[in-house]
């Protein structure tokens, strides 16, 4: 133990490793699965995009502002404790938001006890197309429900069979009663092909076996359709069909949406400052004793925590959903896990190293970093690249799990796909220096953009839930190598004292603003054109920007390399009487040797 506990480096690094591990576990419990939970509440893709875009926007600007205030007033430990404690309550508040259909059972525990799980109501805007015959004979048994609870409308045409909505658009749904499995429709006069929207109703004692949990409602626009709904009345306007597609015709959507919006904003206001405040505190703590080299190795602990947490919480939810979830969406279990791990991180924050001395770095470094980014053409081009990459990556984070769910994937497979990308990034890290030296910073950025565009194109062509796994290996380049190159370029071109503020600006402001814009627009593109079109459009935009990024590299002002050895030799020859005196200068000899190598 050190005589002064404030500078006990071994203890500080141990606590920091555990804290980063707990924060990785904590974020993995909810963040990857948040859009799935919003889908289980019944929200359509545009409203989910708005919620996620607001979340990214708050994180991009509120977090750095709170970190600046905590640093100025020396309240970092208070902010760490308050952020962790407040996020527990805010996450539980988000888990209490009632879904659009309050009477829908969401747990699958009934199926495990031998009873078929009742089919959930799809969010507004889902149309079922099929061939319906005359009313079925009384007393005929209905087919068992095969659809898993909590799934929403399909994002791709033709994938309804895997998710339980029926078969693809190329073939009709046929059966003894002329209805899709798991849904009960009222009697239809005559025989013909029509498109009906199903709406949930509570089961009554007087219902016949054919009147189950759903009845035929008004015609609704499919989630992916861009025009009027199939089978709609001739006098139905396109505006009314679009409103039904967005869920505007459903009672209670405003309540659910605004409750979710308020809970997400409050949650992000409390959570956003945590990561930057912790990083700044630990860096300054180690900087006082010149041990910042150990700070660079702490990122692996957060990555390991995220890898373990994203698989662990998915497996845990699959085991505990029956005994714990009786009413409401199953995604609420993720918030319970988040609160539990946040409590553990709260205990670690009490011993987290926070310096009590004033920092030695000058103030207003953020303003200097912003002016530097705006005045350097290479940094400005890099900022636009990070912005576009953040916008494209947000579409994957928001809606890829939706499509995997439509293809029949479980949450455990979704979590494993995320963990596979993180493990690939960890495995590639030992080759980071070689990669940057062989390709240079601009070449590595181009490689990362190309891999991200290839991933998006691959995601638009998925044919099964397991087919997403091979593409996740590219995340090591599209995410890991891209950010390694960005960080190296920023550190190389930053002035002394602006390295960390400039790096935080790229990862927070520029990437967060791009993710916000991508989320805002991505939800509407998914609704009116489909998820495949969204991914293909993002792929085209990234490839065009990649071509522009490579073509303008030679047009940018080239960096002038200074030969320090020649400058020192020239100064020494001007001030010394002989060459022998210059040779005795150890700095000149060292620079000459480095130059010759």
Please give a structural write-up.
- The chain is mainly alpha-helical and 597 residues long.
- It has 4 domains: 1-100 and 252-357, Up-down Bundle (Growth Hormone, Chain: A); 110-237, no CATH class; 365-560, Growth Hormone, Chain: A (Up-down Bundle); 564-596, no CATH class.
- It is 60% helix and 3% strand.
- It is built from 22 helices and 4 strands.
- The strands form 2 sheets. A two-stranded antiparallel sheet has the order 1-2.
- Helix 3 (45-72) runs antiparallel to helix 18.
- The longest helix has 30 residues, at 377-406.
- The two termini are 44 Å apart.
- Residues 1-5, 103-153 and 156-239 have low confidence and may be disordered.
What labels would you give this structure?
single chain, 597 residues, mainly alpha, Growth Hormone, Chain: A, 4 domains, two-stranded antiparallel sheet, 22 helices, 60% helix, globular
State the CATH topology of the largest domain. Answer: Growth Hormone, Chain: A
Major beta sheet summary: 2 strands, antiparallel
Count up the helices: 22
At the fourth level of CATH, the homologous superfamily of the largest domain is MFS general substrate transporter like domains
How many domains is the backbone divided into? 4
Q: What's the helical proportion of residues? A: 55-70%
CATH-derived architecture of the largest domain: Up-down Bundle
What is the β-strand count? 4
**Residue runs with pLDDT of under 50 for 5 or more positions:** 1-5, 103-153, 156-239
| Class derived from helix and strand content | mainly alpha
Spatial order of strands in the largest sheet: 1-2
The SSE string, one letter per element, is: HHHHHEHEEEHHHHHHHHHHHHHHHH
Main CATH class of the largest domain: Mainly Alpha
Please report which band the strand proportion falls in: under 5%, 5-15%, 15-25%, 25-35%, 35-45% or over 45%.
under 5%
Assembly annotation: single chain
Mean pLDDT: 74
What's the alpha carbon Rg, rounded to whole Å?
28 Å
